[in-house]
Amino acid sequence: MRHRRPRKGKRVLRCPQCNSDHLVYEGALIMGQVYHCLDCDYIGSFVIETDEAEPAPPLKTE
Ligand SMILES: [Zn+2]
Fold it and tell me: 4 C-alpha to center of ligand 1: Å?
């Protein structure tokens, strides 16, 4: 039996720097999976995963 997810909608990944959801998967490196933000050129393994319907939490850059 499969575990069902209680939430509807797909998950979206957001950039931790500019909060954009224009992230592309770059591949797996030593540090793990790496994503690339098309808006601010952020590259890293840390991204914010959120529901599409939910607004992303406000972020501070510094
Ligand atoms: Zn970005």
Answer: 31
Residue list, CB under 5 A from ion ligand 1: 15, 17-18, 20, 37, 39-40, 42
The string of pLDDT tens digits covering residues 35-50 is 999 999 999 999 999 8
What is the 3-state secondary structure of 2-61?
Answer: CCCCCCCCCEEEECCCCCCCCEEEEEEECCEEEEEECCCCCEECCCEEEECCCCCCCCCC
- CB of 5 within 8 A of CB of 43? no
pTM score: 0.64
